[in-house]
Amino acid sequence: MMKKTMQSLVAAGALAASLMAAEPTKKIEVHGHRGARAMRPENTLPAFEYAIGIGVDVLELDMAVTKDNVVVISHDPILRAPVCSPPASYKGSMAVIRQLTLAEVREWDCGKVRNPEFATQTPVPGTKMPTLDEVFQLAAKSKVKFNIETKITAERTTKERALAMVVRLGLAPGSEAAKNAVDAMMAIGPDSAPSPEEFVKLVLAKIRQYHVEDRIILQSFDFRTLHAMKKIAPEIQLSALTTDGKKSFVEMAQEAGAQIISPVYQTVTPEKVKAAHAAGLSVVPWTANRPADWDKLVAAGVDAIISDDPASLIAYLKSK
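Below the sequence we write its predicted structure tokens.
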């Protein structure tokens, strides 16, 4: 009896080993949010260089368009403190990028001030806002991919919606960070970007110039740009960004015509991820920075995680 039991255990162990060999643990990709804004000024060449150096799989970044139709890298379609500091000659603390030429945008210093949200961020004074060209050039010798977002909206944000977003993002109501975020969101409107069709044409021209079609994910909250890109370049991967916790991931991806759903991380559940995978979708939540949150996302079976602190996320995943 004991001999048969031992034989069964050995057989079971062999079967388990063969299954593990046939189905290796799925790699979870790491997307450096705005490069790595926990460590370097966001959406700048120093942030992207740092992220590439520590081994991210994907650079996550945001795009705006200047008055002279240059695609630049900025989370907001406006220039504002503390992200970018105006030149001494400028009267005011905020400017719409679409109303400025590239030369005028580059009068602002986007590395001078440490973001108060990130005590670990190292300022890099004198840093100018980069162009999409410069990001592609920086990453030319690497294999890193790009998750690039069109900053565009069909309507101006109301104060009520901006305040609701601040709460959703976890910023303390009444804090300086919350106030800056509300001001920024309310300054954004349809005039902050070119039309969806023109926006994606400008972006696609750069993608094709640098031959990075197979390294690109185009993401947006405004699905008009995703549909516009799909029409002229169906080979480009698309990602639907969302904060909606009520609709299913599948439903939102279908609305966007996207292969990837990118939800705010608090809305991720194992059930939603399983349904998305069954529909052939990838799930790439944003922006999770704590091990407790990474634990939940890994357990839910996500395909990638967007984080402000990609080095810590990489170390965490290796430890698992």
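The CA atoms of residues 52 and 83 lie 21 Å apart.
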